[in-house]
Amino acid sequence: MTVGRAPARFKRTARRNRRNGDSIPRPPPAAPEEAAGSSVDGLRLPSQPAAILPKDFFLVDSLELAPRLLGKFLRRDEVVLQITEVEAYRPNDSACHGRFGITSRTAPVFGPGGHAYVYLCYGLHTMLNVVADKEGVGAAVLIRSCAPISGLGTIEERRGQKTKKPVLLTGPGKVGQALGITTAWSNHPLYTPGGLEVLDGPAPDKILVGPRVGIQYALPEHIMAPWRFAIAGTPWISAPKNTLHPP
User: Fold this and answer.
1) What's the chain's average pLDDT?
2) Is the distance from CB of 187 to CB of 195 less than 8 angstroms?
């Protein structure tokens, strides 16, 4: 083992005002909640508490709803996440679960816009979708990635991962795990107070678009459709990133 020189020790001293010698306290690092009205990692944070989005917000084509959800917030208890990446799934889309028709699993996706559709991927990952359009249409928006706004300790505990890096929430299964939801949350109205809510938030200045991820089973025109949307300039986006580009 090589023994190097011991690092120098420095005595901590408060900074002094040159004029009167008063100590100038250093402010503590701002928590996500305290950064309201600012921009962090390419994300715009609200300057005041956000309101729950009304039901009418969701009653549009999923291709219209998907980019509109960017910058909005998901809230469950003390955990608040800002949506940074989504994918649209439409009627007659060979990658949409609605292609199977109404079954016990897919029935929620045919429900009214603004409700949750939660399913298990590979029997392991809980995937949160926001149902779009009118009841019976069969369309939804998958929440692919988010950024943590509050409740970081709870998020880390649920994820079993102590980190503030994007790996914490970049992937749909990670989002579901961070929110602590199960398939029992399917059909939950996201526009009512309590439980799981979608809150208003600032629209991003710029977005990126590209093909959706992991749908090789779909028809070629649906594989290549640019129905994946993300906030530009933020690291809170899942892989692959090189398929995303300005619209």
Assistant:
1) 86
2) no
- Measured CA to CA in angstroms, residue 112 lies from 34, 135, 172, 218 at distances of 35, 4, 22, 25
> CA quadruple 213, 87, 76, 187: dihedral positive or negative?
negative
How far is it, in rounded angstroms, from Cα 199 to Cα 75?
7
Q: Please give the single-letter amino acid code of residue 22.
A: D
Q: Say if strands 116-121 and 79-89 run parallel, antiparallel, or are unpaired.
A: unpaired
According to DSSP, residue 107 is labeled: G
Peptide bond into 54 cis (omega under 30): no
Place of tokens 């129905």: 227
Sign, Cα dihedral of 177, 243, 203, 190: negative
Tokens 């608040």, located at residue: 80
Q: Would you say residue 70 has pLDDT above 80?
A: yes
Pick from 138, 87, 86, 134: nearest CA to 108: 138
Please, what is the angle between helix 152-159 and helix 172-179, to 10°? 120
Q: Which residues contact 71 (CB under 8 A, 6 or more apart)?
A: 43, 44, 82, 83, 201, 202, 203, 204, 231
Q: Which pair of tokens denotes residue 74?
A: 């998901």
Answer whether 82's CB lies under 8 Å from 235's CB: no
Q: Compute the distance between CA of residue 225 and CA of residue 220 in angstroms, rounded to an integer.
A: 9
**Beta bridge partners of residue 183, listed in sequence order:** none
Tokens found for residue 218 = 């779909």
Q: Name which of 236, 225, 224, 185 is nearest 70 in CA terms.
A: 236
How confident is the model over 1-43, as pLDDT tens digits? 443 444 444 344 344 333 333 333 333 333 344 344 455 566 7
Q: Which residue reads 């603004």 in tokens?
A: 114
Cβ(144)–Cβ(238) below 8 Å: yes
